[in-house]
Amino acid sequence: MNSKEKTQANLELCESLLDEVEMAFSSLSQIALKANRLARQTGQFEHMQALQYEASGYPTTLSGKYSSEVWKLIKLAGRAKQYKNEESPNGFVERAKGDALDQMEIELEILEKRAREGSPNPSERKARMSDWREASTRLASRRLFLHTFLSNTYFELKFSSVAQDIFDRIRERVDESIGYVVPESIMKFSAVYENLASENNEDWSNAVHSCRRILQDTADSLYPAREDKIIESGSKPKTIKLGPDNYINRLIAYIEENSDSERFQHIVGSHLSYMGERLDAIFRAAQKGSHDVISSQDEADRYVVYTYLVVGDILKLKHGQATEIGGEHG
Q1: Are residue 121 and residue 55 in the same domain, yes or no?
Q2: Does residue 327 surpass a pLDDT of 90?
Q3: Backbone phi, then psi, for 84, in 5-degree steps?
Q4: Cβ proximity of 275 and 307 under 8 Å
Q5: Which of 48, 61, 138, 215 is the most buried (most CB within 10 A)?
Q6: What is the pTM for the complete model shown?
Q7: Are 215 and 311 in contact (CB under 8 A)?
């Protein structure tokens, strides 16, 4: 199952769970267990653990207290409440009940039954109604927690799906065009995908190094190394290096010589300069033996997306669409 199919499957699961919460098709305990699976599949590991404890109950130490790790999850789930306490430096203390959801649901049924049975004693009737309302409020807060988690996840997945569709269109266009200009880059992009799917940060770094090589190959094909160019800049001439290692300068020179759009030249040129500086810095760090220069998969993803966007723009320019590109960036 590819990433797009996984996103769609998670989106469908999320929609189904939202229906269950909103229409009360299932017990909250059952929904929490299903939501735990959704959290695991979407990489929300703190919520995954909290949802597991929602279903099973939050564990305590031998002294009956919550550990700092469990208390953090209790607060994440919105179970902690503040109570006035004059002896506390803040004037209040936080407490929480960590009952399992099925216990809370059973308790509510019992208290509701007792409240409806009534009592000849007015104080007893009042106490029963108060207990019922409190239990109902507690369970409603658990429903709200589940609904909030599912709603947030739904919109994140929905946005991710739209972004993936946009990127897929760009990728298809680039893959189709780059084969004619830089045939060897097709294999490099394939290696990029494989490395991005890994859980190893060295593979993520390798994906970014491949992006650098793709830009180098594109420069070698469109604007091979040549003598440096001298341009007028202010009061004195400026030398633009166009040697084999100056692949970013060569791509920018190609854009400037083949595009009539100043906006296109500025925007794509700025992206290239930023990309080149960062990619070269990563490359130099790797040469010095640093293997964790890419800190996260998200960071690697960004460089791959930037590479596709920049290469796509340059290839459009290659096919005589400079004016159109300038308009798109506007």
Answers
A1: yes
A2: no
A3: -65, 140
A4: yes
A5: 215
A6: 0.61
A7: yes
Q: How far apart are CA 101 and CA 150, in angstroms?
A: 17
H helix or E strand, kind and range, residue 229: strand 229-233
Q: Is 231 helix (H, G, I), strand (E, B) or coil?
A: strand
Rounded percentage of the chain residues whose pLDDT exceeds 70 = 93
b/e string for 253-268 if b means 16 or more Cβ within 10 A? bbbeebbebeebbebb
User: Which pLDDT band holds residue 290 (cuts at 50, 70, 90)?
Assistant: low
Tell whether 172 is covered by a domain.
no
Pick from 158, 165, 173, 160: nearest CA to 309? 173
Where helices occur in the chain by DSSP H, the ranges are: 3-23, 28-41, 45-56, 68-76, 101-117, 122-181, 185-196, 201-222, 247-258, 262-287, 297-318, 322-329
Domain boundary residue among 114, 143, 158? 158
Count CB-CB contacts under 10 A for residue 32: 27
Tell me the pairing of strands 81-84 and 236-240.
unpaired
Which structural domain range is residue 259 located in?
Answer: 182-329
Contact call for residues 139 and 108 (beta carbons, < 8 A): yes
Same domain, 8 and 153: yes
Q: DSSP string covering 85-96, please?
A: -TTSTTSEEEE-
